[in-house]
Amino acid sequence: MILITGATGNVGRLVLERLAADGRKVRALSRNPEDVRWPSGVEAVAGDLTDAESLAAALNGVEAVFLFAAPGSGPGFTAAAEAAGVRRVVLLSSGAVDDAAEAQDGPIAAYHWEIEQALRASSLAWTFLRPEVFAANVLPWAHQTKSGDEIRGAYAEAASSPIHEADIADVAVAALTSDGYAGTIHHLSGPESLTHADQARILGEVLGRPIRYIEVPVEAVRQQMSAHVPAPILDSIIKIWAESVETPRPVTDGVEAVTGQRPRDFRTWVRDHAEAF
Ligand SMILES: NC(=O)c1ccc[n+]([C@@H]2O[C@H](COP(=O)([O-])OP(=O)(O)OC[C@H]3O[C@@H](n4cnc5c(N)ncnc54)[C@H](OP(=O)(O)O)[C@@H]3O)[C@@H](O)[C@H]2O)c1
């Protein structure tokens, strides 16, 4: 049995679908499983990663876990997984984690690193997936594309290597279903470096109309996002954007090293999600 946590999320949902389609025995964890339409053959269970006691039933009889990184959940999850006899854990970590740093730079890197440390200290066979910026991070642009041809946001020239969630899921499935990935770290990215302005242009090309990215002062964006993003995390996101104007986030070969395929490009991601915009 494979347990998928974050199973209603961008990546976890695809991992679940791929394993279920492959005929694997899969269980999905959600805090509210009754609110979700699950693929057929999937057993859904209630549980909260930050409440280790709630995980015992979910982990019963489980061999491998796809682990969503809920802040602070590392020690509790690890103890529960060891007690249940889990063998393998594939963590959806973050490309922000820096093994060379004395202290992690900001809360995003720090909370992922803490969960990694809990897994390293355990008897579990761990695999860390460290993706760069998700292509799906542009989904909040949809409310702007639905009402016009301009996207207003911070740092037009911030450059990332946006990754399609399907590529992360492909790597996760490989690591969940083989012993060959124990103790390995995978820095994953999309195939190209793109600025926010580039991403807006490509979005427009796929949608068939010119879409421009209009840079607005970062404080205006901070105010807008603060309604739904906690302040320390928001500071961390803004810092990553600011730094990536001068130093683009890296393009890595992590996806291809596992799947043998070039990762899907941003244009493909937009085509796959065009209806959202
Ligand atoms: N976005 C990026 O650019 C980026 C870059 C690098 C790494 N990452 C990593 O990827 C993650 C996002 O992945 P995603 O987009 O697939 O996820 P997502 O769409 O944000 O969904 C995550 C799911 O996790 C579940 N969840 C959240 N807190 C939980 C808890 N305490 N206990 C149990 N389940 C919980 C929720 O499901 P229920 O509501 O059903 O419980 C939620 O639907 C980030 O959090 C980060 O760790 C993201």
Keywords:
277 residues; alpha/beta; Rossmann fold; 2 domains; 7-stranded parallel β-sheet; two-stranded parallel ribbon; 17% strand; globular; binds NADP nicotinamide-adenine-dinucleotide phosphate
Concise overview:
This protein is an alpha/beta fold and 277 residues long.
Determine and state the CATH class of the largest domain.
Answer: Alpha Beta
Q: Give the H and E element order.
A: EHEEHEHEHEHEEHEEHEHHHH
Largest sheet, if any? 7 strands, parallel
Bound chemical compounds: NADP nicotinamide-adenine-dinucleotide phosphate
Q: What's the structural domain tally?
A: 2
- Rg result: 19 Å
Provide the spatial order of strands within the biggest beta sheet. Answer: 3-2-1-4-5-6-9
CATH superfamily assignment of the largest domain?
NAD(P)-binding Rossmann-like Domain
Helix segment tally: 11
Low-confidence stretches: none
| β-strand amount | 15-25%
* CATH architecture grouping of the largest domain: 3-Layer(aba) Sandwich
What's the shape?
A: globular
β-strand number: 11
Domain NAD(P)-binding: 6-178
Protein name: NAD(P)H-binding protein
Pfam families: NAD_binding_10
InterPro entries: Ergot_Alk_Oxidoreductase, NAD(P)-bd_dom, NAD(P)-bd_dom_sf
Characterization of this structure:
The chain is α/β, with parallel strands linked by helices and 277 residues long. It folds into two domains: 2-131, NAD(P)-binding Rossmann-like Domain (Rossmann fold); 134-164 and 190-250 and 264-277, Rossmann fold, CATH 3.40.50.720. The chain is built from eleven helices and eleven strands. Strands 3-2-1-4-5-6-9 form a seven-stranded parallel sheet, sandwiched between helices. The chain has a two-stranded parallel ribbon with strand order 7-11. α4 (107-120) links the parallel β5 (88-92) and β6 (125-131). The radius of gyration is 19 Å and the shape is globular. The two termini are 37 Å apart. The mean pLDDT is 97. NADP nicotinamide-adenine-dinucleotide phosphate is lined by residues 5-6, 8-12, 30-32, 48-50, 68-70, 92, 94-95, 131, 133-134, 137. This is NAD(P)H-binding protein. InterPro entries: Ergot_Alk_Oxidoreductase, NAD(P)-bd_dom, NAD(P)-bd_dom_sf. Residues 6-178 form the NAD(P)-binding domain. It comes from Catenulispora subtropica.
